[in-house]
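Quick one, probably user error.
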């Protein structure tokens, strides 16, 4: 806790308190007691909450967001000199005392406060500190979930993130109030869902959501894939396979990111993964931390894509004459379902497009690995032409998919081939992009039209794409080569049109 109290930003807030009482509450106090790093701070202010928040933002050169003017709820986002992103939330006190405010909160572990003018006294009317020591999650009151059903998801997240046991009466209240999630705005629902997707135990989180009865109100499309059978080499039905893929994706991240866990590489499967792809840890870590919006990382988006990668299998399931289950076109159906869920959660358009590309193409590396030899330069180019930078996410999901399909029956030879395929694709993206992914143009559309007396139209684009693909394949290396190929493409296309 001492480190928490020494933060310079807290001294800045003290300076603007004036006649108001300001309390640090909730997760910051809880995590301070647990000796965890704190980046999100919640303050309860007896009066003038928005004015104080704005003054603090100006003083530390942070961004100020008035989230709810009526309830005087504002947010300050501060990027520290060391590059960390800190969130400071200010809210007007509920009730006449801080104790009354705390009793209206979600869980006792979050109903602890400290007056920033007097750090020595812990305000803990519901014995939340004892629950922290006992690793117990307990609701503040019988009304906690009826007042705000979103707390059902918060309970799941706290249980996962803190490793706490949900007290039986609290669990019963969560189950009873899960249907109330339909009353929650999609923006609030999305924020809490992505906090679960940002944990280190996403698969366990989905299982908990299912057990508590929240799955129909968070990921309803997953209900249809429960019990949908699959033929060997699949070991599980589509729903259990999906959870296994999510779990394996978590395992892959523990090996292929800069803070990798050496103990997780002790088995043959993860050891091979580390050996073949460990050279890209820094790049993968940076990639997963990238954001289309400040709220969500690609890591969390990739978990959502993983949850939906086979969601279309229920609608596309069919048995052939041998009794084998087939799912032709399930990628397209799954991508549409993922897109629909993205819009329902009010995600940004570029986030949805990225996830769609990942889901739509998640089978491509598997198909490439099942072909003879390693992917050709032309195949690599076509892969990234379809996926763009989402191709990296496709590779990671595909590896998790293979592990989820075979489980512990995965032959080393098959795993080795998939790893070599992924390495070929990632190497092209991070080390050979100018040669194999996006070669610099040797000719442009204006030059093609002038040289061959053509008018603007689809043929020009077809010529330029043909030349670009041939460059990536290593078949065209000069402007003269490009013009010869352009002439051949034009002649072939004009001949086809004449015959049709």
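Nope, works fine. Designed sequence:
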């Amino acid at each position: 806790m001492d480190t928490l109290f020494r933060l310079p930003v807290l001294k800045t807030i003290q300076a603007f308190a004036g006649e108001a009482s300001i309390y640090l509450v909730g997760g910051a106090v809880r995590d301070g007691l647990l000796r965890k790093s704190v980046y999100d701070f919640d303050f309860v202010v007896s009066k003038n909450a928005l004015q104080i928040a704005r003054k603090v933002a100006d003083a530390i050169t942070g961004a100020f967001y008035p989230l709810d003017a009526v309830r005087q709820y504002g947010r300050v986002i501060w990027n520290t000199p060391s590059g960390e992103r800190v969130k400071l939330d200010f809210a007007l006190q509920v009730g006449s005392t801080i104790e009354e405010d705390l009793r209206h909160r979600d869980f006792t572990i979050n109903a602890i406060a400290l007056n920033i003018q007097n750090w020595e006294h812990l305000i803990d009317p519901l014995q939340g500190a004892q629950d922290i020591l006992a690793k117990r999650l307990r609701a503040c009151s019988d009304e906690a979930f009826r007042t705000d059903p979103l707390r059902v998801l918060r309970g799941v997240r706290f249980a996962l993130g803190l490793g706490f046991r949900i007290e039986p009466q609290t669990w019963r209240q969560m189950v009873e109030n899960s249907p109330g999630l339909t009353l929650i705005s999609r923006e609030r629902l999305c924020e809490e869902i992505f906090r679960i997707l940002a944990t280190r135990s996403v698969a366990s989180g989905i299982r908990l959501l299912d057990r508590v009865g929240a799955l129909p109100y968070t990921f309803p499309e997953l209900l249809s894939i429960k019990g949908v059978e699959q033929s060997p080499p699949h070991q599980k039905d589509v729903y259990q396979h999906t959870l296994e893929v999510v779990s394996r994706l978590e395992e892959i991240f523990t090996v292929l990111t800069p803070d990798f866990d050496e103990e997780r590489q002790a088995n043959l499967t993860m050891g091979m993964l580390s050996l073949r792809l460990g050279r890209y840890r820094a790049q993968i870590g940076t990639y997963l931390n990238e954001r289309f919006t400040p709220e969500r990382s690609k890591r969390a988006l990739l978990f959502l894509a993983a949850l939906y990668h086979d969601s279309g299998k229920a609608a596309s399931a069919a048995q052939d004459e041998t009794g084998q289950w087939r799912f032709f076109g399930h990628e397209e159906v799954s991508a549409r379902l993922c897109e629909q869920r993205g819009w329902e959660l009010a995600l940004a358009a570029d986030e949805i497009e990225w996830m769609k590309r990942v889901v739509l193409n998640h089978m491509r590396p598997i198909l490439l690995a099942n072909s003879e030899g390693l992917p050709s330069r032309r195949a690599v180019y076509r892969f990234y032409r379809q996926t763009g930078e989402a191709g990296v996410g496709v590779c990671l999901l595909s590896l998790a998919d293979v592990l989820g399909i075979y489980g512990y029956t995965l032959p080393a030879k098959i795993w080795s081939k998939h790893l070599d395929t992924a390495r070929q694709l990632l190497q092209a993206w991070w080390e050979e992009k100018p040669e194999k992914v996006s070669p610099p143009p040797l000719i442009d559309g204006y030059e093609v039209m002038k040289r061959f007396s053509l008018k603007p139209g689809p043929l020009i684009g077809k010529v330029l794409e043909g030349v670009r693909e041939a460059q990536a394949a290593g078949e065209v290396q000069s402007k003269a080569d490009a013009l010869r190929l352009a002439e051949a493409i034009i002649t072939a296309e004009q001949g086809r049109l004449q015959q049709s």
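The chain has a mean pLDDT of 92.
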